[in-house]
Amino acid sequence: MSSDSAPINLTHHFLIAMPGLNDELFGRSVVYVCEHSPQGALGLIINKPAGVTLGELFERLELPLGRPDWADMPVLRGGPLQTERGFVLHEAIGEPVPLAGAADDDAGQEGTAPPTAYASTLRVAGTRLELTTSRDVLEAVSVGAGPRQMLLALGYSSWGEGQLESELGDNAWLTVPADESLLFDVPLAQRYERALALLGLQPWMLTPNAGRA
């Protein structure tokens, strides 16, 4: 991405690793971008298991799991940063927030956001999704309440100013608008192929020298 290119906003997009991205964690990864601005980007890898289930994690936290149907849900490796901390991506309450730079019909409301149910939450702009890092969301789940759909990751991924744009320019990633059903309904082992399918691609079609930014 050249310095004179218009800025891009990949909030609520998937980053799909290209074959040339040779990294133990990020290789063949799909990253959901929760926030992207000129200052950088933040996201979660959504297809790499952490080797523990939600039921086992709740047991470690000494919390009951009020959703027994989630006991075998795999906890994810969200990224290389703060890997001892949980990051819960879940459905939000309230109305969607416009994406940054989008037309705002209520100019006087610019910069405001609907209230959230939890103590430490990032609203994913333009969506009904939130990223919560406070324990209260897990406490809600422990009593059978909380969000209807969620995924839980240990750790997160981030890029500094211009870093993601540079990686896109180096053809490290394909990008595609996110599909929420892939976040919550598709088994981990199928997420890479299903994300590529959003672009009409299959893994064998990719070469290390072709990318889409």
From TrEMBL:
Superkingdom assignment: Bacteria
Gene Ontology CC annotations of this record: cytosol
Family: Belongs to the UPF0301 (AlgH) family.
PANTHER family on file: UNCHARACTERIZED PROTEIN YQGE, UPF0301 PROTEIN YQGE
HAMAP family: UPF0301
Name of the protein this chain belongs to: UPF0301 protein Taqua_00011
Organism: Tepidimonas aquatica
